[in-house]
Write a structure and sequence with these properties.
Distance between the termini: 30 Å
Structural class: mainly beta
Number of strands: 6
Largest sheet: 3 strands, antiparallel
Radius of gyration: 20 Å
C-alpha cells in the first residue's frame, strides 16, 4: 500500500554535503529525496519538515548523509511513517463474519 514518511531535518555549515532518503524493497534501494548544501542559516534556525511518499512494497527506509569535512552538521528528528489505506478492517456487528480472528 505504500505510505508517507515525515521527518524534520537540519543542515548547517559551510562544507555541507548531501542528505538523502532511500526507500528499499528488500536489498534494492532507490533515492526518493535529497537536499544538498547548507539549508539553514544558523545552528539555532528552525528545523525543516519533509514529507515523502513511499511506494508500495517498501520494506525499510534509510538516510544517507555525506559531508566534505567536520565543519558541517546535519541531523534528522521526529521520524514518522504513516501507512496508506487500511491495515485491516474488522466488523463487530451482529451477523458479521469479519472479526479479525476474534470470537464472540
Amino acid at each position: 500500500n505504500g505510505g508517507t514518511l515525515n521527518f524534520y531535518f537540519h543542515m548547517y555549515g559551510a562544507s555541507m554535503g548531501t542528505l538523502a532518503v532511500q526507500q528499499c524493497v528488500q536489498s534494492i534501494c532507490t533515492q526518493i529525496w535529497a537536499r544538498s548544501g547548507q539549508q539553514h542559516s544558523s545552528t539555532s534556525a528552525a528545523w525543516t519538515q519533509a514529507t515523502v511518499t513511499l511506494a508500495a512494497g517498501t520494506t525499510h527506509v534509510r538516510w544517507v548523509g555525506t559531508f566534505n569535512n567536520y565543519r558541517s552538521d546535519m541531523s534528522v528528528d521526529s521520524i514518522r511513517i504513516t501507512p496508506t489505506g487500511t491495515l485491516f478492517s474488522c466488523t463487530f456487528n451482529s451477523g458479521s463474519s469479519n472479526l479479525c480472528g476474534m470470537t464472540r
